[in-house]
Amino acid sequence: MSQNALPLAARKAALVTGAGRGIGRAIAQELAGRKLPVFVNYRSDEAAAEDACAAIRAAGGEAYPLRADVSDREAVAAMFADIRQRGFWVQTLVNNAGIVRDGLLAMMPADDWRTVLGSNLDGSFHCARAALQTMMSRKSGQIVNIASVGGMRAQVGQANYAAAKAGVLALTRGLAREVGRYGIRVNAVAPGFIDTDMLAEMKASDKGAALLEDARAKQIPLARFGRPEEVAQTVGFLCSSAASYITGHVLVVDGGLCA
Ligand code: NAD
């Protein structure tokens, strides 16, 4: 058997990228609760990924930590080879890994542009392409890309992030058109402000904290930030049979911010 061949008996699993903490961790928990073995991808914080897996197992689920920087094509290929060798195939892919490197574009270091595009957009491309090989041959699969309302309505200082997330939305729609005939659904979730470490990084500066408080009080009709579980449940819905006729769609989870 060639190294890439997949045994017919391989079990289906979910892969959630950047799942050691925040929204990704909540998504991994949600999918594991739906009886899918879950691979918890992480870039560097092994302890956090181990902890996320331990929490899933304590709740009766099945989870395995898996290291890879999703912006690195070869690392993603190695991650998928590892999943195959363990006897699984990725039937549900959630491209959640993402970062921000805020700053005005006129002064933005090229590296801050590249890094944000790399984790948010290139990572989604690398993982989707790797997962599609098996999804297409099995005529089954679903991909959910975690975008952002920032990809629809840009904030000052986030041109790199806005470009990356707008790219994720376009990737979602384009790919949905290409693979629908194989029974593969591709959707996106666009969260608004969700209470995670990413938000905590923004709160760390006086300017960021003031901006967030203004958004919470004046721009979000529900007048609060979202919880990771609220995004995770939306992903769970998109991955379920209740969403069997939904593809190429962007579901906004923002407390009414974009209303
Ligand atoms: P977070 O910073 O808490 O978690 C992101 C995780 O992704 C981290 O564990 C990080 O290590 C991982 N990651 C980043 N780059 C990676 C890479 N190249 N390879 C592997 N892992 C990588 O952030 P979060 O708030 O949980 O965000 C999750 C997703 O939701 C991101 O795509 C983010 O852009 C999106 N989002 C978040 C918010 C929000 O308000 N928190 C709003 C809209 C969209």
From TrEMBL:
One Pfam family it belongs to: adh_short_C2
Molecular function, one GO term: 3-oxoacyl-[acyl-carrier-protein] reductase (NADPH) activity
Residue span(s) of domain Ketoreductase: 12-192
Protein EC: 1.1.1.100
Record's keyword terms, sorted: Oxidoreductase
InterPro entries per UniProt: KR_dom (IPR057326), NAD(P)-bd_dom_sf (IPR036291), Sc_DH/Rdtase_CS (IPR020904), SDR (IPR050259), SDR_fam (IPR002347)
SMART domains in the record: PKS_KR
Domain of life: Bacteria
Family membership: Belongs to the short-chain dehydrogenases/reductases (SDR) family.
The protein, known as: 3-oxoacyl-ACP reductase FabG
